[in-house]
Automatic annotation (TrEMBL):
<feature type="domain" description="Ribosomal protein L9">
    <location>
        <begin position="13"/>
        <end position="40"/>
    </location>
</feature>
<dbReference type="InterPro" id="IPR020069">
    <property type="entry name" value="Ribosomal_bL9_C"/>
</dbReference>
<dbReference type="Pfam" id="PF03948">
    <property type="entry name" value="Ribosomal_L9_C"/>
</dbReference>
<dbReference type="GO" id="GO:0006412">
    <property type="term" value="P:translation"/>
</dbReference>
<comment type="function">
    <text>Binds to the 23S rRNA.</text>
</comment>
<protein>
    <recommendedName>
        <fullName>Large ribosomal subunit protein bL9</fullName>
    </recommendedName>
</protein>
<keyword id="KW-0689">Ribosomal protein</keyword>
<dbReference type="InterPro" id="IPR020070">
    <property type="entry name" value="Ribosomal_bL9_N"/>
</dbReference>
<dbReference type="GO" id="GO:0005840">
    <property type="term" value="C:ribosome"/>
</dbReference>
<comment type="similarity">
    <text>Belongs to the bacterial ribosomal protein bL9 family.</text>
</comment>
<dbReference type="InterPro" id="IPR036935">
    <property type="entry name" value="Ribosomal_bL9_N_sf"/>
</dbReference>
<dbReference type="Pfam" id="PF01281">
    <property type="entry name" value="Ribosomal_L9_N"/>
</dbReference>
<dbReference type="InterPro" id="IPR036791">
    <property type="entry name" value="Ribosomal_bL9_C_sf"/>
</dbReference>
<keyword id="KW-0694">RNA-binding</keyword>
<dbReference type="GO" id="GO:0019843">
    <property type="term" value="F:rRNA binding"/>
</dbReference>
<dbReference type="GO" id="GO:0003735">
    <property type="term" value="F:structural constituent of ribosome"/>
</dbReference>
<dbReference type="InterPro" id="IPR009027">
    <property type="entry name" value="Ribosomal_bL9/RNase_H1_N"/>
</dbReference>
Length: 148
């Protein structure tokens, strides 16, 4: 069975890869969990879109990761959120919120899965967030959460 991976599958491939798997594995595991879609001629556009998105997010090598780390550590990121009078947030700040705030602050495109929040951010003020850019390179982003 020929499938197109829509997410990373360990031991099989990355998003956008065309793989040949046994029928049962594809039909009973990969497709129902949304890890893959059936391969058709019309799916070629989807493959290209997935690969372009993957290339835009990926960081090529340790040197590139170090450059991105320097950009991130020099950046001052402010995130406006809804908060009460005491400075307590209605909800918490998510990695997706932080990734979009970094991008809107003029920083590089960071994948939300690379952002690690030590403890949930539920108050306004200054916080530090770790971003794992490469297995050997991690950056610390200064984040200011402001009531907006």
């Amino acid at each position: 069975m020929k499938l197109i991976l829509s997410q990373e599958v360990e031991g099989l491939g990355a998003p956008g890869d065309i793989v040949e798997v046994k029928d049962g594995y594809g039909r009973n595991y990969l497709v129902p969990r949304g890890l893959a879609i059936g391969w058709t001629r019309g799916a070629e556009k989807q493959i290209q879109t997935i690969k372009r998105a993957r290339d835009a997010r990926s960081i090529q090598g340790k040197e590139h990761a170090s450059e991105v780390k320097n950009q991130l550590e020099q950046l001052s990121v402010t995130l406006a959120v809804k908060a009460g009078d005491t400075g307590r947030l209605f909800g918490s700040v998510t990695p997706a919120d932080i990734a979009s705030a970094i991008k809107s602050a003029g920083g590089p495109l960071v994948e939300k899965r690379a952002i690690a929040i030590a403890s949930p951010i539920k108050t306004t003020g200054k916080h530090q967030v770790a971003v794992q850019l490469h297995p050997e390179v991690a950056a610390t982003v200064r984040l200011e959460v402001a009531a907006g």
